[in-house]
Write a structure and sequence with these properties.
There is one protein chain. The protein is mainly alpha-helical. The chain contains nine helices and four strands. It has a four-stranded mixed β-sheet, with helices on both faces. It is elongated.
């Protein structure tokens, strides 16, 4: 867990460094300030209203306590162990097997499960999934993700500013600073791309952290490992049956990345490779054995 937290810190520092580099090259202090303000406003809206936006997007309904009292009991137990207030529980009537947590802080948190996940997981495996989602709330991953998105978006704005200023501004000053047209184009493409990859690496590190802390709170790493394996195998089936049930913009929220990725495309995934997640949980279970 300490390693995952440290990795997040290093990646956020790298993202900040990329922002300062772009600002120093093209936007200056004022450019950084205005880009950050604009990105902060857009991501701030998303941060404060993320729960309402996402739950509405998927037509989530309050989870029936009468029908699913056993789920409420599991979440209450896990929240007591994690020292968190009880989140609101939601049901998404969707055949996709998945779950997600959202909300700007532990006092305004929601956990949603789909109809599909209830069909393929048993109670023990679902408990592992819920522990993972509650860990996202405890680790304030919505906040971390919003900070990373704000910095990455600001870098993108500075890159656009660099291209526009070169073609419509004073090219002589750009040449005198040693930055020609190819330099501007190269930097304005590569730095935002690097920022995006760092942002995605941050989300992957938070998934590892939620796996670890969730397994710790549930005291059953293998329950989550078994659940992840079942959910992973269900992804291709979900895509064949319902190819448009998931919005790409919300993919990072789900416990399992809802799209198939292979090879280099894993770099552009918001989730770590499933094989590594499962292997880590098995290693964690071995360490917890008496």
């Amino acid at each position: 867990m300490i390693y995952s937290q440290f990795k997040t810190f290093v990646l956020l520092a790298a993202l900040t460094g990329a922002l300062l580099f772009m600002g120093g090259m093209f936007g200056g202090s004022n450019g950084i300030k205005y880009a950050l303000i604009f990105a902060f406003i857009l991501n701030g809206i998303s941060y404060f209203f993320s729960d309402k936006i996402v739950l509405s997007m998927y037509g989530a309904q309050p989870l029936s306590r009468e029908k699913y009292d056993w789920i409420y009991q599991i979440v209450e137990e896990l929240c007591h162990e994690a020292r968190l207030p009880m989140p609101k529980l939601w049901f998404v009537n969707n055949p996709m097997a998945n779950a997600f947590a959202t909300g700007r802080n532990p006092s305004h948190a929601s956990v949603a499960i789909t109809a599909g996940i209830l069909e393929i997981l048993d109670q023990r495996e679902l408990r592992g999934v819920l522990a993972h989602e509650i860990s996202h709330i405890k680790n304030r991953d919505i906040l971390v993700g919003s900070i990373a998105a704000t910095i990455a978006m600001a870098i993108g704005y500075l890159a656009d500013l660099a291209r526009w200023s070169f073609f419509w501004g004073d090219r002589r000053n750009n040449r005198q600073s040693g930055v020609g047209i190819f330099g501007v184009i190269l930097i304005s493409i590569l730095v935002p791309l690097a920022a995006t990859l760092i942002q995605l690496a941050i989300t992957r590190s938070r998934e590892y952290l939620a796996d670890e802390s969730g397994a710790k709170h549930s005291q059953d790493p293998l329950a989550l490992a078994d659940a992840l394996e079942k959910l992973h195998h269900a992804v291709p089936k979900n895509q064949k049956q319902e190819p448009s049930t998931v919005q790409a913009a919300t993919a990072s929220l789900f416990i399992v990345y809802p799209f198939s990725t292979k090879g280099l495309f894993n770099l552009f995934s918001t989730h770590p490779p499933m094989e590594k997640r499962i292997a880590r949980l098995h290693a964690m279970a071995e360490k917890m054995m008496p």
